[in-house]
Design goal:
One of its GO terms (molecular function) is endonuclease activity. It contains two helices and nine strands, in the order ββαββββαβββ. With 133 residues, the chain is of the alpha+beta class. Strand 1 and strand 2 form a beta hairpin.
Length: 133
C-alpha cells in the first residue's frame, strides 16, 4: 500500500491495512460496501478507508476508491506463493486489444482465483491483485 498522506493506492489485503494501523497506532480503518465473490473463494471488493486521529480520512485514489482483496485467511506468505504461481503459469496479456498494456493474468494454484499483475519495464512486478467475480 502506497500512502502519500492524502490518499493511497494498492491495498489488496487486510494485512496491508493492519500493518498501516500497527505503524500508526492512532489510526484505524474500515471497509465500506464490502461485496463477496459469488463463488465463495474468499475474494471480495470493498472501499478501504483509513481514519486518522485528527478526523482525516485517507481514501484510495484510484479505481473509484475500491479494492479487491485476497481472502482474509491468506497470510502474506500464501498471497506471495499464489501470486508467484499465477506469474509463473500466466495466461498472457489480460487485454489483447491493448498490445502495449503490461497487464497479465494467471490463476491461483487451485484455479479458483484469477490474479492480475503488471510488469514494470525492468521486468519486475509492479502490482498484483485478485479479481472478484
Amino acid at each position: 500500500m502506497n500512502s502519500n498522506g492524502k490518499g493511497f493506492k494498492g491495498c489488496h489485503s487486510k494485512i496491508a491495512l493492519d500493518d498501516y494501523t500497527k505503524n500508526n497506532p492512532t489510526a484505524r480503518y474500515e471497509l465500506k460496501n464490502k461485496v463477496m465473490d459469488s463463488s465463495g473463494n474468499g475474494v471480495y471488493e470493498a472501499e478501504p478507508i483509513i481514519k486518522l486521529e485528527n478526523g482525516t480520512e485517507l481514501r484510495k485514489t484510484n479505481n473509484r476508491g475500491k479494492s479487491t482483496f485476497f481472502p482474509d485467511d491468506w497470510d502474506e506468505a500464501r498471497i506471495l506463493e499464489e501470486v508467484e504461481h499465477a506469474i509463473n503459469n500466466n495466461h498472457g496479456k489480460f487485454n489483447l486489444n491493448k498490445p502495449n498494456s503490461n497487464e497479465y493474468f494467471g490463476l491461483s494454484r487451485d484455479g479458483k482465483i484469477e490474479i492480475h499483475f503488471f510488469y514494470n519495464q525492468d521486468g519486475t512486478i509492479g502490482s498484483y491483485y485478485p479479481i472478484k467475480n
